[in-house]
Design goal:
Length: 369
């Protein structure tokens, strides 16, 4: 396979399938029916690259986008001039003029933020758009019930604020049978009745699969776009978007009894061949995958041998015919045989963390066919 010079200089290659990303958006849109589907692109598009992921999602039909930070909002505005951009983290003090200049809609989470945005609107002599988030049970961000009641009693607090969206976030949507889903739905409806009439949004990726009651007026999925299974325990309806490969640097034969890697974490019990691969925890390949994960080559599963180090992992390739794998060849770490959720399970974490850890040093290639 001919590789370009940037790929030749890199240790790991992260290929993003923009066609699969778009297909996933369409799949989520299909689940939502007539309710529009937004796209959450915080944390650099869940690690895939904001400037690549966001335009692809726009082409797939997304018009509303959510980021966590105003800084991410500026980046998004530069690549999507026409998008509606919400900032989930709220209204950062001192950054109010940037929200106005870059047309970012703050998700107001506290009465203090509401007061500051209303005052900013007054100082500009115009109204300003906002989303209002209520805390329906996650106790993380959003107005608690007491502040919702304050707003209902004192609606003048929202003077100058144009409420574009009322939203809340589900804590347990990935466990459909969890009682908290119905409780949060109830509390969200309760809050909505007390706030200005506006479109509402409750469902993240998994929330969309809880059924129409959770859809309201806007779906708000992130992870499922990027291939994470929104219905754990059931077949993944989403396509894999990310493919991670890394280069073989060296291959050696070792005798039984020889150790491999830091802490002598692996010791050969038979004559073994060990391949050293140019991918480590500095590339987001989590160190806790030591001894728990696999590289894949031509359909063959190759166990990691010893600890993941900063820049390399060592892999036991004794089961491959000698000479089959050579320095410079690429092995798969994320691919058709081992997806994001598989790696997450091996690491004892979730696909979200696997994705957002990747891509700091890998060479990124976007495929679009
Ligand atoms: C991250 C986030 C989402 C997207 O959640 P996924 O589980 O990735 O679909 C939606 N809403 C809020 C408030 C979030 O923080």
């Amino acid at each position: 396979m001919p590789i370009d010079r940037a790929a030749a200089r890199a240790g790991a290659i992260l290929t993003i399938d923009l066609g699969a990303l778009r297909a996933n958006h369409q799949r989520l849109q299909q689940e939502l029916g007539d309710v529009p589907c937004a796209a959450v692109v915080k944390a650099d598009g869940y690690g895939l690259g904001l400037e690549q992921a966001a335009p692809a999602l726009w082409r797939a039909g997304a018009r509303s986008f959510f980021v966590a930070l105003p800084d991410e909002g500026l980046r998004l505005r530069r690549c999507l001039p026409g998008a509606r951009v919400y900032v989930l983290g709220g209204l950062f003090a001192g950054a109010e003029p940037d929200y106005v200049e870059y047309d970012l809609i703050p998700v107001l989470n506290t009465l203090e933020e509401i007061e500051r945005w209303s005052a900013h609107a007054r100082s500009l002599g115009r109204s300003l758009p906002a989303a209002l988030q209520t805390d329906s049970g996650m106790s993380r961000l959003g107005l608690p019930d007491s502040e919702v009641e304050r707003l209902a009693a004192e609606p003048q607090r929202l003077a100058g604020i144009e409420t574009r969206l009322i939203m809340s976030h589900l804590a347990c949507a990935d466990v459909p049978a969890h009682g908290q889903n119905a409780e949060q739905l109830e509390r969200f409806r309760w809050a909505r009745e007390r706030l200005p009439a506006a479109p509402a949004s409750l469902a993240n990726s998994s929330g969309i699969f809880l059924g129409q009651d959770f859809h309201f007026d806007l779906g708000r999925p992130g992870a499922a776009h990027y291939g994470v299974n929104p219905v754990p325990g059931k077949p993944n309806p989403m396509r894999q978007v990310v493919h991670l490969q890394a280069k073989v640097l060296q291959i050696r034969s070792i005798d039984p009894g020889r150790a491999v890697g830091y802490g002598a974490g692996f010791r050969a019990s038979r004559p073994s061949r060990i391949a050293t691969i140019a991918l480590g925890y500095a590339d987001g390949f989590l160190r806790c995958l030591s001894g728990r994960s696999f590289a894949w080559y031509e359909g063959q599963r190759l166990p990691l041998a010893g600890r993941v180090s900063m820049d390399v992992v060592t892999v036991d390739i004794s089961d491959l015919p000698e000479g089959r794998l050579r320095p410079g060849d690429l092995v798969d770490l994320l691919g058709p045989q081992q997806g994001v959720d598989d790696l997450a399970e091996q690491a004892g974490t979730i696909g979200y963390e696997v994705l957002t850890s990747l891509g700091r040093r890998s060479h990124r290639i976007c495929r679009d066919d």
